[in-house]
Design a protein that fits this description.
With about 375 residues, this protein is α/β, with parallel strands linked by helices. About 40% of the residues lie in helices and about 20% in strands. It has two domains: about 220 residues, Isopropylmalate Dehydrogenase (3-Layer(aba) Sandwich); about 140 residues, Isopropylmalate Dehydrogenase, CATH 3.40.718. The protein has a ten-stranded mixed beta sheet with strand order 2-1-3-12-11-4-5-10-8-9, sandwiched between helices. It has a two-stranded antiparallel ribbon with strand order 6-7. The structure holds nicotinamide-adenine-dinucleotide.
Length: about 375
């Protein structure tokens, strides 16, 4: 049976980098002997243009995605659609409804810095001689962003605003299972981040994490308060493997990780729903960055975030782990060879500046050289 995916390139650099990512997917399928059935649909500004500003998320796009094992997403948005009513703007009207429609509660955001790109990180080189590779697992549909009551009112003659942070134990269990399973596929270390010295939700979070940990004896878990986690991430990012945390803390920590990684153009992300009986997830995979209107159409965007989104999709939704590993290795080999798109180029000795197609072509060439029998993720993580 072929794997079925919907491809939603979107706007800006989305279609440019998606094109390369699909070439890599096809090459991986041929090399590792699996089949992909894919259909491409409109989303974001492209959908607004096609529907005379009716919707950034056509029903046909949702219907096709319902039939698929995964969604491969590019990016949406741009100045052209910024003045439309908020509920039909590309991000708010397409991205958030897609997450809600498919119950995508787990956001996986890798924050990694290849050893040869440590100069691009704002963290001092001597602190990260071998780079780092952290995976942040963020709860995406609960917590203070969605808790009620939420609002604003007048109390004793002055305005008061309030939000509610609320978590059900089952929500905490669900995200912790995703994080423990992700850690099992990596270096088997998990850091649970909370604020259990102050927040009741965090006390429940920590209790639940300790209970779930008993089901994963092969994974070592520790706890950090979120303020300390924010500090340790800039001091010793290479000491972390997987971090799991609630929605608000994850929003902030995953952006901190993106910043210390050096370039948005390198970072993929995944939003996952419940695990299915076969151990795989329905998920949506996309670069961490946006549609980059400042460089769209110039052919200079870094395609790596989109290509690594393919690798995450193969790993978490399609169960093609060897192909995912091979793509990760091919990307690393390409970076190690000195090729750099503009976002990474510093002019240092050994670097060659390339455009989107040249970077994608080099990754394809390295993928061709990776032995299909080569197993295992990049090491050391
Ligand atoms: P952005 O991520 O698009 O761009 C920020 C900076 O990073 C820009 O200088 C851009 O050129 C650079 N950059 C991003 N990806 C790159 C890549 N692959 N290669 C090289 N450089 C890259 O963020 P922004 O400028 O704040 O937003 C632009 C548009 O994207 C807005 O309309 C915003 O709403 C939208 N957006 C969409 C998503 C999404 O689709 N998931 C996420 C964030 C922002």
């Amino acid at each position: 049976m072929p794997h079925t995916i919907t491809v939603l390139p979107g706007d800006g650099i989305g279609p440019e980098v998606m094109d390369l990512a699909l070439h890599v997917l096809d090459a991986a399928a041929a090399k590792f002997d699996f089949q992909i059935s894919r259909s491409t649909h409109l989303v974001g500004g492209a959908a607004l243009d096609a529907t005379q500003n009716e919707t950034p998320l056509p029903q046909e796009t949702i219907a096709a995605s319902e039939q698929a094992d995964a969604i491969l997403f590019g990016s949406v948005g741009g100045p052209k659609w910024e003045n439309l009513p908020p509920d039909i703007q590309p991000e708010r009207g397409a991205l958030l409804p897609l997450r809600k429609h498919f119950g995508l509660f787990a956001n996986l955001r890798p924050g990694s810095c290849h050893p040869s790109l440590t100069h691009a990180s704002p963290v001092k080189n001597e602190l990260i001689p071998n780079g780092f590779d952290v995976l942040c697992v963020r709860e995406l549909t609960g917590g203070i962003y969605f808790g009620t009551p939420k609002g604003r009112e007048e109390r004793n003659g002055e305005p008061v605003a309030f939000d509610t942070m609320v978590y059900k134990k089952s929500e905490i269990e669900n995200i912790l299972h995703v994080a423990f399973k992700a850690a099992q596929g990596r270096d088997k270390r998990l850091t649970s981040v909370d604020k259990a010295n102050v927040l009741a939700t965090s006390v429940l979070w920590r209790e639940t994490a300790n209970e779930i940990a008993a089901q994963y004896p092969d994974v070592t878990m520790d706890h950090l308060y979120v303020d300390n986690a924010a500090m340790q991430l800039v001091k010793r990012p290479d000491s972390f493997d997987v971090i799991v945390t609630e929605n608000l803390f994850g929003d902030i920590l995953s952006d901190e990780m993106a910043m210390i990684s050096g370039s948005l153009g390198m970072l993929p992300s995944a939003s996952l729903g419940n695990m299915k009986d076969d151990g795989l997830y329905f998920g949506m995979y996309e670069p961490s960055g946006g549609s980059a209107p400042d460089i769209a159409g110039k052919g200079i965007a870094n395609p790596i975030a989109q290509i690594l989104s393919v690798s995450m999709m193969l790993r978490y939704s399609l169960g093609e782990t060897a192909a995912a590993d091979a793509i990760d290795h091919a990307v690393q080999a390409t970076i190690d060879s000195g090729l750099r798109t503009g976002d990474l180029f510093t002019g240092a000795e050994g670097e060659s500046k390339v455009n989107t197609i040249e970077m994608g072509t080099a990754i394809l060439a390295h993928l061709d050289k990776v032995s299909p029998s080569r197993q295992g993720p990049l090491s050391p993580r």
